[in-house]
C-alpha cells in the first residue's frame, strides 16, 4: 500500500488537488494499492474556488515508497502566498532524504523551493510564475513549456490539469504503462507525458479516443502483445466482426490492430536495446521470431521520421 499525502495550503486550487487524488483513487480501485491522506497546518483550509476543506493536522508515518504531493494555490505572485512553517517544509526535506518522492502541482513548486528541494534540480511550474520561480531559486533550472519534470525523486508539474499527467506518470512508472492507460480510460482523459522525456509507450499515445470496443481490444493487446494475438479472438472478445473492429480500431487510433501490436513490440525492443540488449535478444523478447522483422520495422519508422 502506497500512502499519498496531500499537503493542503490555504487558497489551493481544487483541480490541483482533485486531479491527482482521482488518479490514485482510481488506481486503488483497480487493486494497485493507494491510500490518500490529507494534512494541513490548520484543520480548515480555504480554497481559491471558495469551498472550504477539512484536513488532519497530524502527519502519518511515511516510508520511502510513499509520496507527498503539494497542490498549487492561487498565486498571482509567489512571494507572500502559500505560507508554510519551517517545520512543515522540513517534513518535505526529511521524506526526500529518507528515499521518498516529493511532487508539486503549479505554485506548489514554490513550497519545494523554500524547502531547498529545487536547488541544483530541473523543475517547472505554471507559465505565469515561471520567471518568478527562477528568480526566487537561482540554483534551480526552470524548464519551460513542459507538463512536468522529474529530477532526483522531485517531480514538479505545470498548472492545474497537469497534475493529472504527473499522477498518471507516477502510476506508469510504478505499475507500467498499461495500468496508467487503464486509469486514464476510467477518468476519460487523454493520457499525456511531458515533452521533455521520450514517450516510450504507444499504450498511452493511442488512447485519445472514446471507443469502448477499441479500448477493450487495446487492453487485450496491451496485456499480451509479445504473443500471437489473433484478430478473430479480439473481435469475438469485444463482440464485433473482424472487419468492423479493424475499421473502428483504425479510425480511433490511426493503426490497424496488427500495426498497433507491432508498434508496442518495436518500442519494447527499442527500450531493451537502449538498456544494452542485442538486437537479436531484444527481438525475441518483444515477440519477433527473429531480428529481421524488427530491423525492417525500425527502418520504416526511421524513414517516416526523416
From TrEMBL:
Query: What region holds the HTH araC/xylS-type domain?
Result: 215-296
Q: Which domain of life is it from?
A: Bacteria
Asked whether the UniProt record includes Manganese among its keywords, one would answer: no
Q: Which InterPro entries match?
A: Class_I_gatase-like, DJ-1/PfpI, Homeodomain-like_sf, HTH_AraC, INH-QAR
Q: What is this protein called?
A: AraC family transcriptional regulator
Q: Which one Pfam family would you cite for this protein? A: DJ-1_PfpI
Task: Look up and give the organism this protein is from.
Answer: Streptomyces caatingaensis
List, in alphabetical order, the Gene Ontology terms for molecular function in this entry: DNA-binding transcription factor activity; sequence-specific DNA binding
Q: Does the keyword Manganese apply?
A: no
Looking up Gene3D superfamilies in the UniProt record yields: 3.40.50.880, Homeodomain-like (1.10.10.60)
Q: Which UniProt keywords apply?
A: Transcription, Transcription regulation
Amino acid at each position: 500500500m502506497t500512502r499519498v499525502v496531500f499537503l493542503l495550503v490555504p487558497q489551493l486550487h481544487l483541480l490541483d488537488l482533485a486531479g491527482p487524488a482521482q488518479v490514485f483513487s482510481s488506481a486503488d480501485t483497480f487493486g494497485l494499492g493507494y491510500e490518500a491522506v490529507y494534512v494541513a497546518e490548520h484543520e480548515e483550509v480555504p480554497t481559491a474556488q471558495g469551498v472550504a476543506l477539512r484536513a488532519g493536522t497530524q502527519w502519518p508515518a511515511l516510508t520511502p515508497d510513499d509520496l507527498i504531493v503539494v497542490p498549487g494555490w492561487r498565486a498571482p505572485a509567489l512571494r507572500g502566498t502559500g505560507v508554510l512553517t519551517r517545520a512543515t517544509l522540513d517534513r518535505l526535506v526529511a521524506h526526500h532524504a529518507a528515499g521518498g518522492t516529493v511532487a508539486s502541482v503549479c505554485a506548489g513548486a514554490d513550497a519545494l523551493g523554500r524547502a531547498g528541494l529545487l536547488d541544483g534540480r530541473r523543475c517547472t511550474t505554471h507559465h505565469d510564475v515561471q520567471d518568478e520561480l527562477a528568480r526566487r531559486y537561482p540554483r534551480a533550472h526552470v524548464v519551460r513549456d513542459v507538463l512536468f519534470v522529474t529530477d532526483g525523486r522531485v517531480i514538479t508539474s505545470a498548472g492545474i490539469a497537469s497534475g493529472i499527467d504527473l499522477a498518471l506518470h507516477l502510476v506508469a512508472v510504478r505499475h507500467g504503462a498499461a495500468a496508467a492507460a487503464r486509469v486514464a480510460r476510467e477518468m476519460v482523459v487523454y493520457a499525456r507525458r511531458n515533452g521533455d522525456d521520450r514517450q516510450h509507450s504507444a499504450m498511452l499515445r493511442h488512447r485519445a479516443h472514446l471507443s469502448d470496443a477499441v479500448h477493450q481490444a487495446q487492453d487485450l493487446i496491451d496485456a499480451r502483445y509479445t504473443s500471437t494475438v489473433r484478430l478473430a479472438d479480439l473481435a469475438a472478445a469485444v463482440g464485433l466482426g473482424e472487419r468492423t473492429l479493424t475499421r473502428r480500431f483504425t479510425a480511433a487510433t490511426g493503426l490497424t490492430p496488427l500495426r498497433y501490436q507491432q508498434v508496442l513490440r518495436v518500442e519494447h525492443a527499442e527500450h531493451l536495446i537502449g538498456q544494452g540488449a542485442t538486437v537479436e535478444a531484444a527481438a525475441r523478447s518483444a515477440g519477433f521470431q527473429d531480428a529481421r522483422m524488427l530491423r525492417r520495422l525500425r527502418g520504416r519508422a526511421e524513414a517516416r521520421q526523416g
